[in-house]
Design goal:
Blueprint (H helix, E strand, L loop, with lengths): L1 H5 L2 H9 L5 H19 L2 E4 L1 H16 L12 E4 L26 H9 L3 E5 L33 H8 L6 E4 L6 H7 L2 E4 L20 E5 L2 H11 L17 H7 L6 E5 L9 H16 L3 E5 L7 H16 L22 H12 L2 H14 L5 H24 L2 E5 L15 H5 L6 H6 L3 E8 L6 E7 L5 H19 L15
Parallel strand pairs: 2-3, 2-4, 7-8, 7-9
Antiparallel strand pairs: 1-3, 4-6, 5-6, 5-10, 9-11, 10-11
């Protein structure tokens, strides 16, 4: 079991294809690992033992008959609980969807099922993806496998923690303002936000429709590329889906060459406010890229200074609109108001939302409703959209000077549980480096680049590329990953969580 769960997904896929390891063996190994450690980590909200093993057995049977299978067939996978899964609970980490079982699959789930990947279960998250620590889940927080007293990042901390703790070789997350990349930074995993529209949003429970994007959570860059290729591509069911093929991300990850590549260090995404150990590891990684033949230049994106403020007007406004559907009339929790014998629809709606939504969700609904209200729309939401345009222009200008941009993924390493719960603004600042990519729709990737000297916790390095140039991310990140492996003597940071028995 230990050997199986320590393999990269690419290596395990090769073992599955050669029938050295069966899908049932691999799935059982991960299910055993979940049973062993998830009581401490709490990465999963629902584990589907029977369903996963049934798919695994079917794949083994088809492989035994010589059928032509997908390269990842038989590979176990975990899914963030914001993605609709037919027959499996989808709660979005909220009481208001407690017990809801979708009657349909999201497009990415349909593709995963068609490829024959056993779904291990659904992972924990901040309620409706609103948070940066996975402490806002109605079902309790997820803990960081590197230090169980610290957060794993958010909102997709469950997916990142599952991969970091060897509970899954692959996971799907979603990224609205950094919710794949920031947990990747906190847990020492690889997290990718594809170009907006590059992966179907059909069947993702919407938080902010112009920002949400599903993507891979893995332990290596190649593993992320393999999953990206599977879930990406045009979807006629999604009006925002790009009618274009998936970039050659797997080929780019295998190429891993930065010689002659122009890398732009973003002036505004570093310096004051960034933890010393984070900056140190980031600068070391830039130096490795320079020695490998990359040309490093500094670029300035002045509008990035306003990205956080713009995001926290655009996102809550879209939240206010999207979450209006949870009205207790069609699905979800329904609660009657106390002391009212024959409540009307509005009273039931108010009572149900009060009982079903958590504090952070209510905070953002109120903020967004205010920003969209008559008399304030132009001053707040309209102005934020203008800033969004300026950010896109800054990206375009920066990409005229560099092939990819780089920055630390998060300004700090994982902080203690409860440390920022009473200070929403401090929590929001965790996404200062990741938010610009969502506002502009460009792809981003977080790669672990070492441990901070102060606390021995993982540090993430962020690559950004122009829209539809996701392959550039994979090429540059795979090259840096190889350089770091040489530096560490082959040890992969994402495979060393400090859980008992993990080393």
């Amino acid at each position: 079991m230990t050997d199986i769960i320590r393999m990269t997904a690419a290596d395990l896929a090769a073992k599955l294809d050669s029938r050295e390891v069966s899908s049932v063996e691999a799935t059982e190994a991960y299910l055993d690992r979940i049973a062993q450690v998830d009581g401490d980590v709490h990465a999963f909200l629902h584990v589907d033992n029977d369903g996963a093993l049934s798919v695994a057995a079917s794949v083994d049977d088809r492989r035994g008959k010589g059928e032509d299978l997908h390269p990842l067939a038989g590979m176990p996978i975990a899914i963030k609980d914001i993605v609709a899964t037919k027959g499996l609970p989808t709660t979005c980490g909220s009481k208001i969807l407690s017990g809801w079982i979708p009657p349909y699959d999201a497009t990415i789930i349909s593709r995963i099922r068609a490829a024959g990947l056993p779904i291990l279960g659904k992972t924990n998250m901040d309620e409706f993806a609103m948070g940066s620590s996975t402490e806002h889940s109605a079902y309790g927080p997820t803990r960081n496998p590197w230090d169980l007293d610290r957060i794993p990042g958010g909102s997709g901390g469950g997916s990142a923690a599952a991969v970091a703790a060897y509970e899954a070789p692959l996971a799907v997350g979603t990224d609205t303002g950094g919710s794949i990349r920031q947990p990747g930074s906190m847990t020492g995993t690889v997290g990718v936000k594809p170009t907006y529209g590059g992966v179907s949003r059909y069947g993702l429970v919407a938080m902010a429709s112009s920002l949400d994007q599903a993507g891979p959570v893995t332990r290596t860059v190649l593993d992320a590329a393999l999953l990206h290729e599977l879930i990406g591509g045009h979807d006629p069911l999604d009006s925002t889906s790009l009618d274009a093929p998936v970039p050659a991300v797997v080929a780019a990850a295998r190429k891993a060459d930065v010689k002659g590549l122009k890398i732009g260090v973003v002036k505004e995404l570093g310096g004051e406010g960034f933890q010393a150990g984070v900056s140190e590891r980031f600068n070391e990684a830039v130096e490795l890229l320079t020695r490998a033949g990359a040309e490093v230049v500094e670029v300035s994106c002045p509008s990035f200074d306003y990205a956080l403020a713009a995001y926290y007007l655009v996102m809550p406004s879209e939240v206010s609109s999207n979450l209006a559907k949870f009205d207790a009339m069609r699905y979800g929790v329904r609660v009657g108001p106390d002391g009212v014998a024959s409540p009307d629809a509005e009273q039931v709606m108010a009572a149900s939302r009060d009982a079903g939504f958590g504090d952070e969700v209510k905070r953002r609904i109120i903020l967004g409703t205010y920003a969209l209200s008559s008399g304030y729309y132009d001053a707040y939401y309209g102005s934020a959209q203008k800033v969004r345009t300026l950010i896109a222009r800054d990206f375009a200008a920066a990409f005229d000077k560099a092939d990819v941009l780089v920055s630390p993924t998060s300004p700090t390493t994982a902080f203690p549980l409860g440390d920022k719960l009473d200070d929403p603004l401090a929590m929001y600042l965790q996404d200062v480096a990741t938010i610009p990519a969502n506002l502009a729709g460009v792809p981003g990737l977080s790669l672990p680049v070492g441990l901070a000297a102060e606390d021995g916790l993982p540090v993430g390095f962020q690559f950004l590329a122009p829209a539809k140039a996701d392959d550039r991310l994979y090429n540059a990140a795979a090259a840096l990953e190889a350089l770091l492996e040489d530096k560490w003597g082959g040890a992969l940071l994402g495979q060393a969580p400090i859980l008992e028995g993990a080393r």
